[in-house]
Design goal:
- The protein has 182 residues and is mainly alpha-helical.
- Helices cover 63% and strands 5% of the residues.
- The longest helix is centred in the C-terminal third of the chain and has 35 residues.
- The radius of gyration is 24 Å and the shape is elongated.
């Protein structure tokens, strides 16, 4: 039988009331949960990036096919008379990471934002200094087979994979900490 709080002190053998606070679901907790899910997708993108450039290095794929899978393509749809952009690999990764930064800025998670800012700055620099092409991609099929560029792209993939794996566990810790402390 559950007794009201005031009567528990009067009844011998009644269980004491727990004064531990309940977990609160805050916007910061939501941000960390969404970041966990999206970081899993970014880990998948980084693994795909590593495999793609390994296939290119071992001559399993030709550079044109490889760049078509990595770069976004612009297809004109004649019936609708608008431009449809089919995003492939690079732009979704950059947009998801920028979305993280905006989310953590709105949630006032300053340490998490500070940890994500260097990679966001790198993404902006990488996209602004991309080769001149007809479409909005990062990888040019004519220069991608250069040994220096290929090695750079592979190192970039491994570094991003390491960052996203560390970020995944940091977001998991941050989510648990925000849920328990609020």
């Amino acid at each position: 039988m559950v007794l009201p709080r005031g009567l528990r002190a009067l009844v011998p053998g009644a269980a004491p009331v727990s004064s531990s606070p309940a977990m609160a679901f805050t916007f910061a907790a939501f941000c960390y949960m969404l970041a966990l899910l999206l970081t899993a997708a970014l880990i998948f993108f980084a693994i795909w990036h590593i495999i793609a450039f390994d296939e290119l290095k071992t001559d399993y794929k030709n550079p044109i096919d490889q760049c078509n899978t990595l770069n976004p393509t612009v297809e004109k749809v004649k019936k609708i008379k608008r431009v449809k952009i089919a995003l492939k690999l690079v732009l979704p990764e950059y947009l998801i990471h920028a979305f993280f930064c905006v989310m953590f800025l709105c949630a006032a998670e300053w340490l998490t934002l500070a940890l994500n800012m260097p990679l966001l700055a790198y993404h902006i620099w990488r996209y602004m200094s991309r080769p001149v092409m007809s479409g909005p991609g990062l990888y040019d099929p004519t220069t991608i087979m250069n040994a220096d560029i290929l090695a750079y792209c592979q190192k970039e993939g491994w570094c991003k994979l390491a960052f996203y794996l560390l970020a995944f566990f940091y977001y998991l810790y941050g989510m648990i900490y925000v849920l328990v402390s609020s």
